[in-house]
Amino acid sequence: MNTQITTLINEASATMTSSVEHLEKGLKAMRAGKASPQMLAGVKVDYYGTLTPIEQVGNVNTPTANQIVIQPWDKGSIPAINKAILDANLGFTPKVEADLLRITLPPLTEDRRKELVKSVKSEGENAKVSVRNIRRNILDKVKKTKDSKENPATEDEIKQAEKEIQDLTDKFIKNIDSVLAEKEKELMTI
Fold first, then answer.
1. pLDDT value at 89 more than 70
2. Is the Cα dihedral 130, 135, 140, 141 positive or negative?
3. Mean pLDDT value across residues 101-107
4. Which residues pair with 44 in a beta bridge?
5. Collapsed DSSP state (helix, strand, coil) of residue 41
6. Nearest one of 28, 24, 190 to 114, comparing CA atoms
7. Mean pLDDT, the chain, as a whole number?
8. For burial by CB atoms within 10 Å, which of 77, 114, 122, 131 has the most?
9. pLDDT at 163 over 90
10. Residue 170 binned pLDDT confidence (cut-offs 50, 70, 90)
């Protein structure tokens, strides 16, 4: 097969993989009844005038399945961390204890679980759109290889590449569907 086309197919695979990884990372932050340090991943603390990720201002861990504990390295930053968590509007309130913050997660209601499932489906649809856009862009580039001055692609090579790219797209869409099904199951399990 034409080297340009092979390179484009590899590029499609790599960018589709990163789309799925982005989806998985986003879904980890969604609360499913179990506490996880990733739930605070997007929180930025005003740490001496600089917005700093929460994991860089203290130790974030989960001593029990429904608690997150933040132990700041600088005890004076506790109010700033508390404010950052409240401003992030994550659906829970930290409790300040001496030199740490403790977040106890309330159990999810049925309505909240359904809202989270809708949100998961929306994120999944965005990932699918991303994969389809990658397919479209790569197919456009493959078609242009026919007009290449060096090593132009033949019609058969282009047809073969289109089929491979479609197969790749189908594989990643199925992968996204399985990630979504797993997260839905996790959210709906009490």
1. yes
2. positive
3. 83
4. 53
5. coil
6. 190
7. 86
8. 131
9. yes
10. very high
Burial (CB count <10 Å: 0-12, 13-18, 19+), residue 70: buried
CATH of 3-29+109-188, one of 3.40.228.10, 1.10.132.20, 1.20.1250.20, 2.30.30.40: 1.10.132.20
Q: What sign does the CA torsion over 172, 22, 101, 75 have?
A: positive
CA distances for 140 relative to 3, 132, 135, 144, angstroms = 16, 12, 9, 6
Domain 37-104: which CATH class?
Answer: alpha beta
Which of 135, 134, 137, 157 is closest to 145 using CA atoms?
A: 157
Q: What is the pTM of this model?
A: 0.70
**Residue ranges of the domains in the chain?**
3-29+109-188, 37-104
